[in-house]
Amino acid sequence: MGTAGARAQGRLVGLDAARFLALLGMMATHLLATRSDSGDPTWVAEVLSGRASALFALLAGVSLSLMTGGPRPLRGEARVARGAGLLVRALAVGLLGLVLGGVDSGVAVILANYAVLLAIGVLLVGCGARLLAVLCLLATLVTPVLLWWVRPGLPPRGYDSPSIEGLEEPGRLVSEVLFTGYYPVLVWVSYLLAGMALGRLDLRRVPGRVLGLVAVAATLVAAAAELVSDRLLAREGTVRRLDRDLWLLVGRDDEEALERLHRLIDTGLYGQTPVDGAWQWLLVSAPHSSTTFDLLRTGGAALAVVALLVWALRALDGPGRSLVAVLTGAGAMTLTLYTLHVLMSSDLLPPAEGRQGTVVQVGVVVVAGAVVALLGRRGPLEGMVALAARGTERLVRGPSGGR
To answer: What averages of pLDDT result for each successive group of 10 residues across the chain (403 residues)?
Structure first.
């Protein structure tokens, strides 16, 4: 494992492990059932829905901070050049997302929204950890209310992923990416800011007790958000008001209002609460409901996972570090493997649907990541995007170069 060990020394293995979990979690929500035959949430819905994609977005923020100086944000010409490279990176990811969005895969492709998040993050790379944390808190509290307020005046959403065809109606495409789609960037910026704040700590040297405190605090916030949401929803007036909207949403009515409401909340929404719904929808913590309680529940869990993995794996050295780097190698090439997952979920590439196809997909992802890690290489799409970003940085810096 010499090559893998040398590569692992230059990376935070805990972050790759977190990306690995995010990738597998997102694949599970796409490939496995989130509802049983009776309509009850499965373990996939209970454990992974909303949390896996939130972890993916939060890690984007961590990466942005690390690529722009970590605890010491880049300044001057260096920041401008790196920002230009990051914008090219975002453009490449966004174009790939639009292409994949046109593939009939059944996957709600996140890459176009992810790219817009990266571009927004470029505007904030000069901020320190405290300011980013404050902005994250404000975004978590304010953007869900703003989203609930503006959506009724926007074009009706579609349920397909953003695609090249959407460029024919750019206004609708922008509306869906920023406001009305499955991953509304206006609200998801909260995850990005949380990750950027964490990335502005010196993750290689910050005391373990600090990371432990972050993990514990984030876990408590996530648990409290779900508990408070459940208590607020249990009030009779709230249930009655939401059930009225729910009847319009699902087209039926019965006496099992609370049970039906909680089934919907447990298994998740589709990025939004009902348009023109009552303000009480802001009290739910359902996955992909884009509420403050949803952000706190899923973002807190994501933050806890990253802090714990960085803390737990940072001390590894020698063979142990190399072994983890190989086993979670898929986390170092998530762009390539996410793309492969989308294509394998369509008719363009095998395997077929069903349990066997799921096992094959997971096996391909894990083995491919391990092989690339053993070879000390990076994923092909990661390599191409990085090449374009570095070329852009050199052009912006000019012949003089310098930091």
So the answer is: 51 94 96 83 91 97 96 94 97 98 95 97 96 98 97 91 95 96 97 98 93 97 95 80 65 56 74 87 93 98 97 86 94 97 94 83 96 94 97 88 50
The type of residue at 197 is A
Distance between CA atoms of residues 151 and 131, nearest Å: 29
Cβ contact 31:57 at 8 Å: no
- DSSP assigned state of 287: T
Cβ 325 vs Cβ 11: under 8 Å: yes
Asked if 27 and 341 count as a contact pair (C-beta separation under 8 A), the reply is yes
State the residue for tokens 């009850």: 40
Positive or negative: CA dihedral 87, 214, 187, 25: positive
Structure token pair of residue 250: 């699902």
pLDDT score recorded for residue 1: 46
Query: Does residue 52 contact residue 28 with C-beta atoms inside 8 Å?
Result: yes
Q: Which tokens go with 160?
A: 């397909």
Structure letter (DSSP) for residue 371: H
Closest-CA residue to 60 (of 147, 188, 187, 174): 188
Instruction: Return all residues near 123 (Cβ < 8 A) that are at least 6 apart.
Output: none
Question: What are φ and ψ of residue 300, in 5° steps?
Answer: -60, -45
Residue 12 burial (CB count, 10 A): 19
How many helices (H) does the chain have, and how many strands (E)? 17, 0
Cα gap 23→338, rounded to integer Å: 7
Length of the chain: 403
Cβ burial of 36 (10 Å; 0-12, 13-18, 19+) is exposed
Q: CA-CA distance, 181 to 93, in Å (whole number)?
A: 18
Distance CA 194, CA 303 (A): 8
Token output for 126: 């000069």
What does each C-alpha distance from 300 to 137, 220, 259, 268 come to in angstroms?
A: 12, 8, 26, 17
pLDDT in the model for residue 242: 78
What distance in Å separates the CA atoms of residue 375 and residue 44, rounded to the nearest whole number? Answer: 33
Task: Count CB atoms within 10 A of the CB of residue 325.
Answer: 29
At position 331, the amino acid (one-letter code) is G
Q: Are 32 and 353 in contact (CB under 8 A)?
A: no
Among the residues of 106-256, which ranges form H helices? 111-122, 129-150, 170-175, 185-199, 208-233, 236-250
